[in-house]
Amino acid sequence: MAEPGFPQIAVLALIQGLTEFLPVSSSGHLLLPSLWLGWPDQGLAFDVAFHSGTLLAVIGYFRRDLWRMAVTGLRFGPLHSEGRLLWLLLLATAPIGLAGLLLRDVVAAHARTVSVVAYASIGFGLLLSTADLAGRRDRSMQDIGWRTALLIGLAQCLALIPGASRSGITMTAALLCRLDRESAARFSFLLAVPVMLASGSLEALDLALQPPSGRQLLSLAFGTALAALVAWLSIDWFLRWIARVSFQPFVIYRIALGLAMLLFLA
Question: Which residues does 237 contact at the CB level (< 8 Å), separation at least 6?
Fold first, then answer.
């Protein structure tokens, strides 16, 4: 396989960083360059680099929250709110961990098609719209209990469908559980940390069987850094946006993207 050039690496890192945490499906957007530009698959090493960049971004952005959660959640004694949140996030991660192990190969073999991504983008976008408009939004992060965390975690399993968007489906579930928009977004972003750590570990194990060459290291470092920078800015912008506006612009965008992909297939 030919090594991707810097233009391809830059575009894919930008897409990964921008869309990983927005409710618009990164997998759908990563299909577009190959569809429109005919680019070959970039390979596992660059997939790991881009995902590592977005993981570093979310850990860096929420570093203080994560530190307080770890300190208070892993010590003996009564749990404070941050420590309790740590265990709720781990509970919400368990369903997709199991589902990913059981269905990973099936999804890779049968669901990674343009039509699946297009219909998922539209269908789950409409579901997000319904949750945003109908949700009561009278609960915050402090009101999340084990039932809510488990429901969001179960819904997260739908993110295995390409085009569904992990962020989108977890925010949708959180809104349906009556969380306000900012709390729904924050819980989704924090939930990304254990999920991405688990999936990244599996990718790293696969990569160990085909390690990158020395000449690839500069390209991989560039892709990681660019994805991390864009993801950090994306998280910061989205949290500011969603505190003032609704999810409806993202719904419109998802539907338009899905229709455009279906028209491309026609």
Answer: none
